Amino acid sequence: xxxxxxxxxxxxxxxxxxxxxxxxxxxxxxxxxxxxxxxxxxxxxxxxxxxxxxxxxxxxxxxxxxxxxxxxxxxxxxxxxxxxxxxxxxxxxxxxxxxxxxxxxxxxxxxxxxxxxxxxxxxxxxxxxxxxxxxxxxxxxxxxxxxxxxxxxxxxxxxxxxxxxxxxxxxxxxxxxxxxxxxxxxxxxxxxxxxxxxxxxxxxxxxxxxxxxxxxxxxxxxxxxxxxxxxxxxxxxxxxxxxxxxxxxxxxxxxxxxxxxxxxxxxxxxxxxxxxxxxxxxxxxxxxxxxxxxxxxxxxxxxxxxxxxxxxxxxxxxxxxxxxxxxxxxxxxxxxxxxxxxxxxxxxxxxxxxxxxxxxxxxxxxxxxxxxxxxxxxxxxxxxxxxxxxxxxxxxxxxxxxxxxxxxxxxxxxxxxxxxxxxxxxxxxxxx
Length: 432
Ligand SMILES: N=C(N)NC/C=C/[C@H]1O[C@@H](n2cnc3c(N)ncnc32)[C@H](O)[C@@H]1O
Known about the structure:
This protein is an alpha+beta fold. It has 3 domains: 10-89, SH3 type barrels; 101-213, Vaccinia Virus protein VP39 (Rossmann fold), CATH 3.40.50.150; 247-310 and 319-430, Hnrnp arginine n-methyltransferase1, CATH 2.70.160. Helices cover 21% and strands 34% of the residues. It has 10 helices and 20 strands. Strands 11, 12, 13, 15, 16 and 17 form a 6-stranded antiparallel beta sheet that branches. Strands 4-3-2-1-5 form a 5-stranded antiparallel beta sheet, with no helix packed on it. Strand 9 (207-212), helix 8 and strand 10 form a beta-alpha-beta unit. Bound molecules: the ligand N=C(N)NC/C=C/[C@H]1O[C@@H](n2cnc3c(N)ncnc32)[C@H](O)[C@@H]1O. The ligand N=C(N)NC/C=C/[C@H]1O[C@@H](n2cnc3c(N)ncnc32)[C@H](O)[C@@H]1O binds at residues 105, 108, 147, 149, 169-172, 174, 197-199, 213-216, 222, 224, 227. Ligand 6LC binds at residues 105, 108, 147, 149, 169-172, 174, 197-199, 213-216, 222, 224, 227. Keywords: Cytoplasm, Methyltransferase, Nucleus, S-adenosyl-L-methionine, SH3 domain, Transferase. It catalyses: L-arginyl-[protein] + 2 S-adenosyl-L-methionine = N(omega),N(omega)-dimethyl-L-arginyl-[protein] + 2 S-adenosyl-L-homocysteine + 2 H(+). Residues 29-88 form the SH3 domain. Residues 1-22 are annotated as: Disordered.
């Protein structure tokens, strides 16, 4: 596991931060007992292998990511994410639930997020168009609307098509409101609201269509996709339809001068004072994680975007989500500053009644959606010019402990006329 600062690896990070107070956590965290919440297998002789439930004594929190502990007389490094403060035991539901379901479903029980999603016209109208354009194919069919929220997709099915039944499955408390909406609109003989986690679902029959709006930041965050794939394997007929049918993640190198100026250059001379020593901590504080609500302007793209991953949701396996990596090469088409990379996703819906497919694209060349764009800022901007090449790789790695979270590792090489100019690498947690 690497730290979140650029070009560092754990061994460099350990050497450079040994006894470095700037990186140790407050003393009050040390000399306390911690419980291991997830097995860990050491990857070198400075680390300890531990099992879930082991108790350790924290000796030195050398960084946010790695802690030096004593376990039954043996000392070594373990990932801090695998430890929980045994003396300050939170509710079991919080600590022992790597899916954080109580917090997760709690966030969907109020109207805030549902209002945001329903207010997203490109998102919601895409689903309406999919139902509209396939209405005759849906006649007499069984449909599963997974994570239905307020039931909007199920309402579209009842309003624009004549399916046999729609199973509107929703685990959060909002399902109580969804029930009332379905009754009030007189469609309860067609739309069956089931307040249940999809994983525990019991339906009277397999379904012809599994439709869901499961996409999170960078497509995968929340990993609701795992629930969708499990429901596919359990409830979708062999020749059934997945909507969305495919999903893509796109990336482009970009300038983000205003972001960099507002968050870092600001410290050069606020009110004509030199606060520039705050620029490094500002960079770490504001750019260690991606900005999930960034709006990339098309003119800030430094090259054509590329498609990193193209997922087929009829065949994708949950295990493939653990780690996905892809190489990329961008040909810079504009002189400028490379401040970072921006990512977004698109999803495609197979059309059952004519050639082609419908698409919801959340990128900078399509109508803005509530997902906006995800900006990965480098620690330092890099000068690039037309015809430079930015090649490298990206790794999406699912968090082995917190199962709704992931990290994105970006590695890049900037070359000019075949001569290597700049090399870099940075790990971005989303969000743990
Ligand atoms: N599109 C975004 N960002 N969020 C996805 C939308 C999430 C909605 O789906 C529900 N949901 C998520 N996972 C499950 C599950 N396994 N079983 C039943 N309901 C579920 C949540 O409570 C939200 O209402």
